[in-house]
Amino acid sequence: MYRVAATNQYACPRCLRPFVTYQVGVYLVDACVDCGGLFLDNATTREVLSTFDRSLVGVATTLGIGKGETLQKGVNQRNLSCPKCSVGLQTVEVPAAQVELDVCTEHGTWFDANELPKVARAYKRSRGSLANDALGKVLDGALRAGPA
Ligand SMILES: [Zn+2]
Ligand SMILES: [Zn+2]
């Protein structure tokens, strides 16, 4: 993994600080080093969950160390907006991982600190049987809609 840009033009939906862009293998990742969350486009999310990309899950794990339970009060946005289009993110439950994700069907999925490793492990355990759960359907819909 290496850092492509120290800041980019998009801001973390949770704490509104600029994202850092990382290149992880073939993927570009928008990450927030303050809260430990990351925003992945929906094709990448689909790919990570079906292949359990170790390097990407590893980056998410590293970003999440010591984060998540310690978000400062007042910095923590409740109604999240898409960092790219500002439309309200859609909440999608992943019961197998006991996680709620926030998705823009057009631009991507927001993973709070430590959510990506949890969801990726749940998908890995299910050996593909989660492919048609709510998240899978949302991502499928997003992918079918095609690029804007
Ligand atoms: Zn943040
Ligand atoms: Zn969007």
If you had to describe this structure to a student in words, what would you say it looks like?
The protein is α+β, with helices and mostly antiparallel strands and 148 residues long. It has one domain (2-145). It has helices at 42-51, 54-64, 115-126, 134-145; strands at 2-5, 20-24, 27-31, 38-40, 90-94, 99-104, 108-111. A hairpin with a 2-residue loop joins strand 2 and strand 3 (27-31). Bound molecules: zinc ion (2 copies).
The ligands bound in this entry are: zinc ion
Structural class: alpha+beta
Mean pLDDT: 86
DSSP E strands, number? 7
Strand content: 15-25%
> Approximately how much helix is present in the residues?
25-40%
The profile of the biggest β sheet is: 7 strands, antiparallel
Separation of the first and last Cα atoms: 29 Å
Strands of the widest sheet, in order across it, are 1-2-3-4-7-6-5
User: What is the oligomer described by this structure?
Assistant: single chain
- Given as residue ranges, the uncertain stretches (5+ residues, pLDDT < 50) are none
Question: Topology of this structure?
Answer:
Layout: E1 2-5, E2 20-24, E3 27-31, E4 38-40, H1 42-51, H2 54-64, E5 90-94, E6 99-104, E7 108-111, H3 115-126, H4 134-145
Antiparallel strand pairs: 1-2, 2-3, 3-4, 4-7, 5-6, 6-7
Helix pairs in contact: 1-3, 1-4, 2-3
The structure holds zinc ion (ZN) (2 copies).
The site of one zinc ion (ZN) has 7 residues, from loops.
